[in-house]
Design a protein that fits this description.
Elements lengths: L2 H8 L5 E2 H11 L8 H13 L3 E6 L7 E6 L1 H12 L10 H7 L6 H30 L4 H7 L3 H37 L1
Antiparallel strand pairs: 1-3, 2-3
Length: 189
C-alpha cells in the first residue's frame, strides 16, 4: 500500500482540509499506517496534480484561507484498482523483538523494564481503540453494528488495531513471566 491509498481512503466520507486529513489519518488509520503531517500534505498535492482529488480554496475571516479536498471519480477508481490487487503481507520490525532475541546475553531486569514499558503502551493504546469502537457503534452492540452500521470499514480496521495491541500486551506479559521464572530458577542453583 502506498500513502496515496491511505489518504484517498481518509477522504471517502467528506471534504476535508489538509489539517483535517492529518487528524482523521491519525485517528482512523494510525493503527496500520504512519505518516508525518508534511508527508500527508505532499501526498495531497500529488493526488490533486494527478486528478485523484479535487481541492478548492475556502476564504476564512480572521484565519488563513484553507483548501478542502475530496476524492474524484478517478481517485475512487484508483482505490478500486488498489483493492483488486493482492495484498502484500506485512513484516513486523520492532526493536523490542531484537532485544528479546538477544535475551540470553542481556540483563533480564533491563529487558523486563522495556517489556513493562511496551506492555503499558499496548494496554493504553488498546483502551483508546476500544473507546473509539464504542463511539463508532453509538448505541448499537457490536453484532448489530457489524450487520447494519453505516461505515463498517473504519470500525474493522480500528478493531484490528485494538486486537494487535492486545496481542502485544499479552506477549509482553508472557515474555516477562518467562524471564522472571528463568531468573528465579538460576537464583535457586
Amino acid at each position: 500500500m502506498a500513502l496515496r491509498h491511505a489518504v484517498l481512503a481518509a477522504l471517502l466520507d467528506e471534504e476535508l482540509s489538509g489539517y483535517q486529513v492529518t487528524k482523521a489519518f491519525a485517528a482512523g488509520v494510525a493503527n496500520f499506517w504512519h505518516a508525518l503531517p508534511q508527508q500527508v500534505y505532499a501526498e495531497l498535492a500529488r493526488l490533486e496534480k494527478e486528478g485523484l482529488v479535487a481541492g478548492r480554496e475556502v476564504v476564512q475571516e480572521a484565519r488563513p484561507n484553507k483548501r478542502l479536498f475530496r476524492v474524484t471519480d478517478e481517485g475512487l477508481a484508483e482505490l478500486e484498482s488498489f483493492a483488486s490487487t493482492a495484498a502484500k503481507p506485512a513484516f513486523l520490525r520492532e526493536d523490542l523483538l531484537v532485544q528479546v532475541q538477544a535475551a540470553d546475553h542481556l540483563d533480564a531486569d533491563v529487558l523486563i523494564e522495556r517489556l513493562t514499558e511496551r506492555y503499558a503502551f499496548a494496554e493504553a493504546k488498546a483502551a483508546l481503540f476500544e473507546e473509539q469502537l464504542r463511539r463508532m457503534r453509538g448505541g448499537l452492540d457490536e453484532a448489530e453494528f457489524l450487520l447494519r452500521g453505516a461505515r463498517v470499514g473504519p470500525y474493522l480496521t480500528c478493531r484490528r488495531g485494538r486486537d494487535f495491541e492486545r496481542a502485544n500486551r499479552d506477549w509482553c506479559r508472557d515474555v516477562m513471566r518467562v524471564l522472571r521464572a528463568r531468573g528465579e530458577d538460576r537464583a535457586d542453583v
